[in-house]
Amino acid sequence: MKISSATLRTFTTLHTWVGLVAGFALFVAFYAGAITIFHHELQAWQSPHGVDHAPQSLTDAQRLLDETLARHPEARKHVGMVFPGGEYPIASTYWQDAKGQWRFATLDHLDGIDEMPGGTLSELVNALHYSLGIPVAGTYLMGIVSLLYGLALVSGVIIHLPKLAEDLFALRPGRNLKRMWQDAHNVIGVLSLPMHVMFAVTGAMLCLVFVVMMALNPLIYRGQLMQALGPAMDTAPAVAPANREQAIGSLAMWSERSIQVAHERGIAAFEPAYLKLANAGDANAVVEITGQSPRSLGPLGAVALNANTGVALSAQLPGERDANHATLAAAYALHFGEYGNTWVRWLYFVLGLGGAFLFYSGNLLWIESRRKRRQAEQGAAQWWMARATVGVCIGVCVAISVAFIATQLLQMPALRDAIDLGVGVNLACFATWALCAVWAALRPPVRAAQELLWTAAVTTMAIPFAHGIATGAWWWRSAASGHWDLFAIDAGAIAMAIGFAWLAFATARRARDGERNSVWTDPRALAASVRSSSAPTAPAIAVRPDTPSSD
Amino acid sequence: MWSRAFAGIVPGFLLSAGLVGLFTWALPGPWQGTIVPGIIAFFVVWIAVMAASFQFANGKRAWAWLCGLAVLSLGALWLLQWLRWIE
């Protein structure tokens, strides 16, 4: 395919700049996002019950619901509840109090608490994923980053198109490091392109949907969007209370009825996951049960019932949804990897780490293509880019591992009352990240890279030990008792630790044996070679004529 | 570069809105039925328009073209809505 050189130049510049601006945020989003794929498993992992805890039953959940409605009158208007089961071992209810604050209750906290129970670590990783941990503005920032990411993808494809076929499977290792990084960057970018396109679009939507709806409302919806939204999006019809008391049905009845309704509409499997109950105690009580139907794109469907009689009111199930529900369910499922089986989620995990590599390698390419080959002195921009890449990217890996360890240790009996768990874990994470960034700013980049990679390897390796020491749920015990979700997180940490150690070795090799005159050259090695270079030697590197860079 | 970028962001936003509005309102059925697909499509169209705006020879042309097309598409949408030819 032929593309004019002016176009190529324009889009190369565009790709470089949007990549640099958005690359750091995207690295964090992808690394944390890959972990967030196992959100529910993390909730089980971080709870101190460990392997010995049996999941709660529907009877426990019923008691929780009854107590919540009895103790908290505001919850009668609207209450949400998670069914206990494989994904959430502990049932919890949530509602908004008179001031509009979300409150949560479990059987251990019937009077209500301000935070989702057992969610400290998984919420922190999720917040890093969608907002870099920045309150309020962070979400919009990530929405803008998603748009820049979309532009980076379009421009990346355009500059790559002319040589797509010949470059795709060319991974040329060897002395020309820039060429090898370029090949790796291209091959990962092109092979996971559909996933990246999907993330750019759904990511922008998830972060910016409200802002864009406000802007589009007067432009194309004649100011009627907000009124139309409720009826278009809710499964249960909005019903006003009848102001006549009536006893509500039970969780068991709703669960059974929702499965029955799904069956009647041709859905073979429907596993209730959570419910929303409105007007509890009133004749017009409505319950909406959302459940999973495996083997469909957008597995979440919902059935709305009269909560007292169990009469079906409406349904949005796979295969018979309207366009709004079908596209939203598909967008959610594609973004969160919630379709298919465990293999799809592991694929998302691997592609997520691959995505993080894509942005990391983009930064390295920027540095590499501006390298001054004939002099030891490198430009300040390259030095700072290297420092920032090391501090932010490797730093966040260390910080997340430290948050994992802190979550376990702070729940041990000795420390449980010393510091609030949420405060402690967040502090551990962000303080570690800041320290890593400062460390990277003060050290030569190649040394900081090795030191921080080793720190990442050690802290990540410590995760399963912290888990075992704090809860007794050592990975071999988890495996023996069939708690594969707990085992997978511990085993995953060990594998990642090995990966970090390997990267540390590779960085050391680059510093020692790689091409000289780079920010990645070890200053000590360089000094040694200058001392020994009094003897005439052949040039170590065959300097290539500079090819037009296409980073 | 900056001028073309802002052309893609500002009039490009309006043009994308016009294009998506025309398309979703012209589909059979009430407009309320395509709110979510329309908003998802909006992000795709806007990214495409922003990328395309770099193809103009200079910023002035980008602004002129995108503003013109935005007025045209939104004008057509509002006219058709006002005439109740689409709803």
UniProtKB/TrEMBL annotation, chain A:
InterPro entries, per the entry: PepSY-ass_TM
Bilayer-spanning residue ranges:
12-38, 140-165, 186-216, 346-367, 388-409, 421-440, 452-475, 487-508
| Coiled-coil parts of chain | none
Q: Which UniProt keywords apply?
A: Membrane, Transmembrane, Transmembrane helix
Keyword Transmembrane: yes or no? yes
Going by the entry's taxonomy, the superkingdom of the source organism is recorded as Bacteria
- In residue numbers, the region (Disordered) covers 530-551
The answer, when asked if Transmembrane helix is one of the entry's keywords, is yes
Name of the molecule in the record:
PepSY-associated TM helix domain-containing protein
Q: What species was this sequence derived from?
A: Lysobacter stagni
TrEMBL record, chain B:
Q: Which domain of life is it from?
A: Bacteria
Q: Does the keyword Transmembrane helix apply?
A: yes
* Residues that span the membrane, as ranges: 6-27, 34-56, 62-83
Q: Which UniProt keywords apply?
A: Membrane, Transmembrane, Transmembrane helix
The protein, known as: DUF4175 domain-containing protein
